[in-house]
Design a protein that fits this description.
This protein has 103 residues and is of the alpha+beta class. The chain is built from two helices and six strands; from the N terminus they run βαβββββα. The chain has one domain.
Length: 103
């Protein structure tokens, strides 16, 4: 199992290099939504993307797994494992809103 700690993060930019600052995703109803790529990182070799809708910056973000297909193309996949999703989400929160020392 991956060690989801700040020390194990490797920042990446594979999505931004491939698609730019924003990406379009189609939901299960066929609706296309635009998301900004807020962050990309790897933990133990598995890539993750944090996406936010430009008009909803203060709301929840999407946490997706970055997957490379056999042909080398990049795909985003839903994280079905609740524990993995929670670990990635908490890690991103820790990186975004670090706790201040109480000294």
């Amino acid at each position: 199992m991956a060690d989801f700690s700040v020390e194990n993060i490797v920042w990446t930019q594979v999505l931004k290099e491939a698609f730019g600052e924003s990406i379009e995703l189609e939901d299960e109803k066929g609706q296309v939504e635009v998301y900004d790529i807020a962050a990309e990182f790897e933990v133990d070799g598995q890539g993750y993307a944090i996406l936010v809708q430009p008009d909803r910056m203060d709301e929840e973000y999407e946490v997706l797994r970055i997957v490379t297909d056999a042909d080398g193309s990049l795909q985003l996949a839903t994280i079905d494992d609740d524990e993995e999703w929670e670990n990635v989400s908490e890690l991103y929160d820790e990186l975004t809103f670090p706790e201040e020392d109480e000294d």
